[in-house]
Amino acid sequence: MFWNLFLKECRLQWREKRFVWSLVVLLLLAVPAVAVGFAHYRSDLSEVEAGAVAERERWVQQGPKNPHSAAHYGIFVFRPVSPLRVWDQGITPFAGGVVFTEAHIKTDASYETAQDQSTLSRFGSLTPAFVLLYLVPLFLMINGFALISGEREQGTLRLLSASAADPRRLLAAKWLSLFPIVLLVGGVMLGLGLVLLWGRLPAANLLTASALCALVLLLYYGTIANMTLLCSAVLRSSHQVLVCLLLFWMTSSLVVPKLAASAAESWFPTPDREAFHGAMKQEKKSGMDGHDPADQRVARIRTETLAKYGVEKEEDLPINIDGLLMQEDENYGNKVFDRYYEELAAVHAQQERVFQWSSLLSPLLPARVLSMTLAGADSGTQHRFNEAVEVFRRDYVELLNTDMMHESRSGDWRYQADEGLWSRVPVFTFDFGSPLSRFATQSAALGMLLLWFLITGVLTAWLAPKFLQKVTP
Amino acid sequence: MMWRVIWAHESRLLRRDRISLAAALGFVMIMIAAAWVNGDKLNRWEQAGATAVAEQEARFSAQHADLVAMEAGEKHYDSLFGSPQSYFSWAGAVTVFPFDSWAMLSTGSGDLFAPVSQVKFYTKARVPGHDTANPMPRLFGAFDPAFVLLYLLPLFVIALNYGIVGDERECGILPMVLAQPVSPRQLFLLKIVWRWGVTSLVVLFALCAAFAVGGVNPLAKPLALAQLAGLVWLYCGFWFLLCLLVNTGRRGAHQCAVALTGLWAMLLLVVPAGAHLIGGLLYPIPSRIEAIAAQRLAAADAAKQGGEILAKFYQDHPELSANRGDTYAQYKATFQWYQRTLAVFEAVEAITAPMEQDFEARVEARLRFEQGLALLSPAVSVREALDELAGVSRVHYRAYQQEVQDYAARFRMFFAEKAFGESVIESADVARLPRFDMAPLQSNASVLRALAWLALVNLLLLAACAVLGREIPAR
């Protein structure tokens, strides 16, 4: 009985023109979305790899130079490209992918690609995530809104009720009938993605990412299917169902995310970049509590160093005190940076909590966050990248200062290091982590999505059978 | 007099349709909320600009007082380090994007570029992004009046009109209506014109409320107001005529609703995203990484040939090899360092200029191509026009970037004159130090293009409705 009901629903859908049209449109969008995403990934990857190799070459072959000059010559670090970005670009166009690292200064990632794009880019990019998270739910709603209300209007619900069909089975069959097409579109995209990315990251990671992505999509589509069935059962006419579902889609996909974005920035504003960097610079100069100015710190370190080595003049020191002073300045600056960036990270975390709470109004938000996280294109990954760059900067600046400290004498600014030292600076690497570990950081988003699925599921299972008995509009 | 009967009937229907009245009220409230939210953000950005300028002027003023004291022999610095005579004490000058009061209408490109940036004479000037901001909010875009007009207004129109004919057909009253002494074409066109007029009034009222919330007097810019009203009226009309066109077939109300929703999704989501995809494929923008690599290479080469470059710099700028200041002997090495740095900087600029011009040309070509594709969806044209009216379009930010570059060149030249004149900063120099000043750019090319394009599309739709509406199936 159940399968007969399910097959009947599928057959009915296939006979609808809108179903066939929307399926064709979705498949026409899905395939180029994956293919173009892959093409962009390959070109971005080759650019980043070539850029990193050239930058390393320039660094190593910069010629003999004072280590501190080299520290100011600096190293450009390019954000690696995750193969899973084919799936979802996430925040990548809005987050810088290039960081210039040098002594004394912690710089932020810059050169956002969105800056070079036209107005069209603000309407969204045609990525697999865009098709699957924005368009497929709309398709589900358009195809499913009349599942019950349509039967009620046509009078066939009376016939169904008169049959021996269990209302819950009937509902389950209708619910399931929404999925073959979703599985087809999602399957085509995931399958194509798997084929294209096979060998580009460990098979276990690729399969885990695909499985987790499928889980997210099933929970999301399950929620949409629940809502569709619930509205179709509860509301009086198909018009009302359609209007209500479209209102829900528009609110959850467009309005709530934008409102959440604006609210997050309004309630927890991030400091202006000039003011932020100005404040750090000032604090480095005047001391973290305003009572330890840079010149006093320098004088204190000079005195302590002379005392430590038991000499009276800097020239008699076995080390170059300038190297030591610069490293001490780095250490102090790092404390200032840590404090400011921790505060900034706390503001970002508060902003993201606004998104988390807004997920109560939109199932798209947690689904999008999970999709970006799986693709390694979320703000958490960007934050980890920025931290990794900062660790790299601190390490190599310390290496250069230490070399200057031990290989030259105080006041000797003519000292020059060579390729031997430059080669000792390690190559920057960044590990995106496994999809599972990234996914685990978004347990709140997963919980929200699960909550949406369960609440809408329970409501549908509880309310829809009752309204199923109402056979007339 | 048929129009009077029809409009009076429509008016009665509207008064009794509580859902439509609630939707209209909701629309106005959403517009007000969007204006408030966007106005709040704009205030923060303007505040950041005002604070940066005030802090700079306070710093300059304090340093100027120090210079006066030094020249009077009342104050003394042991070295140039930290002294106001040093170029580095004056190195950073702020540039602030000039927001128009209408910027509360749209965020435009405002969330991609920092409202305040700093120009230094020894580094390349560029307008940075909001480096300290969380990229998440920018991913989802801004909740501003432009969003309400672009996305929600069409849905509002569709919700009110998707069944303009289909509803009457489904209720069975269409045969009775068509039995009246009025042609179907006249009847439904008159209905649409009335609803279009009422909706336009609601939208204009919502916009006035938005301006009031943003503390802006729209009448101060009557031409821009007329353009905005025209834009909204034509965009609204586009969706009304589309509703009518879809209704002219043999479809029921819910089939029309599905078709209109599909068209909405196509025009606002799929077409722009698809056009962007095609633009990216046909006109790929070269990577910034390549530009950085070229600049690094040029800088390294220039640094190695410092002496030759300095000589060439003197050849190119004979006016700078002028008088030697009194402080020459004291700070000879410092001046030489500045001279070399500035000469190398100019050499690197000259080497990388062709690549940058190529980059800009390719970005421009892509933007032009996408501008052409934007005609596929009226929403994109309207978005560009709204951004332009708000003074935050790509054109505005590109003009700002250019102005920052020009200012940076003037700023650098000021220090070049000092460095090659081999004198330190004096109190008399402070008044000559260039300050950034840019008035909001007045441009309306996108607005006029959108108005013309929408008028043409609407005329075509009207003609199609007139042809297809001659015979409206009663069942």
TrEMBL record, chain A:
Pfam families: ABC2_membrane_2, DUF3526. The keyword Transmembrane helix applies. One of its GO terms (molecular function) is ABC-type transporter activity. The chain crosses the membrane at residues 20-41, 129-148, 175-198, 204-229, 444-464. Keywords: Membrane, Transmembrane, Transmembrane helix. InterPro entries: DUF3526. This is DUF3526 domain-containing protein. It comes from Acanthopleuribacter pedis.
From TrEMBL, chain B:
It is found in: Membrane. One of its GO terms (cellular component) is membrane. Keywords: Membrane, Transmembrane, Transmembrane helix. InterPro entries: ABC2_TM, DUF3526. It is a multi-pass membrane protein. Residues 146-269 form the ABC-2 type transporter transmembrane domain. It holds the Pfam family DUF3526. Coiled coil: none annotated. GO terms for molecular function: ABC-type transporter activity. The chain crosses the membrane at residues 21-37, 146-165, 193-213, 225-246, 258-283, 450-469. Its main location: membrane. This is DUF3526 domain-containing protein.
